[in-house]
Every structure is written in structure tokens, then in C-alpha cells.
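User: Please predict the structure of the protein below. I'd like the answer in C-alpha cell form so I can feed it into my own downstream comparison script.

Assistant: Understood. Taking the following sequence of 356 residues as input:
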Amino acid sequence: MTSRENYLSIARRTGYSYMPAEFNMCPSLREKYLAYTAEHDIRVPEGAGYISDLPAKCASYDEFLKYYPGKTFKPGTHINGWGVANEPGSAAAFHMTYMHHPMEHFDSVEQILAYPFPQFDPDGNGLAAQTAAAKQLHDAGRAVIGGMQCTIWETAWYMRGMENLMCDMMSEDPIAEVLLDRVTDIAVQRAVSYTKAGADVLFLGDDVGMQFTIMMSEGLYGEWLKPRLKRVIDAARAVNPDVIIFYHSCGHVTELIPQLIEAGVDVLDPVQPECMDFKKIHDTFGDRLSFHGTIGTQSVMPFGTPEDVRRTVFENLGIAGRQGGLYVCPTHLLEPEVPVENVIAYIQACIDYCEK
């Protein structure tokens, strides 16, 4: 198998020849990891490659400031293309920031309609660049991913504020419909472009789980978010029926899995072991759904030994079986407290499981 064939076969549960090692690290851990790998020969099994999103024309920092009347931000505050401000915390917060919501005090649909949403691909040249990037990865034998996490719900509540948007939805305020539709329209545009460019995988997602329960009722999710997620997936599949859909949500999402499958999701990420039992989830849904994650970043990665990490990788791959259905990897960003030795143990376990 080529790297691309191997990667896609895992999702389709048709076997695999090796397990890619996939992980992301915070800046301070990355420094330690790079120092370690400079002194040791570390082979990382190759996974898929990402191509860039469409270029976007966004309002300026100063233009967005008018949506924060009376607020003074600390130096280093970043306002992204959606107008969401991320303000740095103390030194103890490391890379974590405090989020501010530009639509927090909106009280009319007209304010939503007048808001300067980012304009993706304003010059109409973005698809060509994406296609060239996808071809380069395909020519190297690698699968291509289009990254679109924070697809609908998170993008919308980042702008509106979670409590406000929850109340809008539960009270059926038109603000919720207009905001979610606008975000969905943009997501459809991006998904279609990625798929036209040749992406094998779309990585969608919105956090809809908490540590021990879902963030909203099944009914609220089914009314407001599932149809919009399905519209994004259907638009991509109208271009390529075989595109594989990953969906990310941290936390406990067990009750929402049937709706995710109905919307067209192929792979669920990250299946946090602190929140859900992977074996139970696999036993229930493994014939219809594949998985990405399962190695806890609240548990074994920061607080286990290298042998604990290795054993967990082997156990979870054993649950999935040699037909695939699991990209075993840490469930989220690896934070400063994770020992470098545990990262190395994870990588080596991915190699050794397939070579045993």
C-alpha cells in the first residue's frame, strides 16, 4: 500500500499495513521534543498531509474593535478573521487565552446581516492553489486532508457567546437561524472547494460534549446543528461521493453518535477515554463508524509511564482489530506536563504493533 492507500483503508476498515503516528504539541513541549529528536534517531510513521484553506478577506483589527465598546485589551491580543478576540492570560496560562465575543450584545437580525463575516476566496483563485497542493501530496503517495474544525456551532458561539446562542436556539430567536445559516453557507463553500481540489478527507467538527454528558439535548442538536452539518457533508459528497468525513468533538458525545452517522460522518475524533469507553463505543458503532484518538491527554499521556502509553496503544488497536477502524493517537494537544518520553513511547508503539 502507498501511504495514501494505507490511510484511507484504515477509515474504510479494509486493513492496513502500518499505523500512522499523529499528534500535536504545545510550543513548550515541542521545544523539548525537538531537542530530544536532535539527539536521537526517531522514525515517525507518515500520515496524511493538510492543504490550506481558501484565502479570506477579513475586516481589520481596528474595524472589529467597534464591536467591543468600552473594552481595553492587553498587548498581544489577537482578533481573528471572524472578529473573535483572544486575549493572553498570565504566564501560568502558557498558550491559553481569554475569548471575547463580538456579537455578545447583538439584539437584532439586522446586526447579524450587517456584520463583516470573512469573505473566502474573494479573487476566485483559491481553488487553483488548493488543487496544486493536493496534487503535490498525491504525487508523493500521501492522502490529503482539508481541515475545517469549528465548522458551525463553535464558529457561531465564538462570535455570539455560548450562553447567548444556547438561549437564542432554545427560544427560537431568529438571530440563531440567521447566524447559523450564514456560518453554514461559508462552511459549504469551503468544503466544496477542498473536495474539488482533491481532498480525500474533510476534517469537520464542533465540540458538543462535556466531561460526563452532552452539551445540549439530543433534540436541540437534531433541530439546529445536525441538518446544517448534513448540508455541508452533502455538498462535499455531491462533488466526490467517496470523500471521508472526520468529525471532532471533545468530551462525552455517546448519545449524539447516531445523529452524526445519519449526517454522514465516517470517523469520530477523539473518543476521550476519560469520557467514553472505547470498547463499548466500538462494540456498538464499530460496524458503521471508525475512530481517531483514544489515547488520553488527561490521563495516560501526562501521568502514565512510557510502558502505560505503549500498553494503551496496543489495547486499543487490538479492540479495533487488523481490519482497521482506528487511527490511534492522543486525543488532543499535548500540553506542557506530558513527558517527552511518553511521546516517543507512543510513536514506537505505533511502529511495533504492526511489526510484531
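That's the full C-alpha cell string. The chain has a mean pLDDT of 97.
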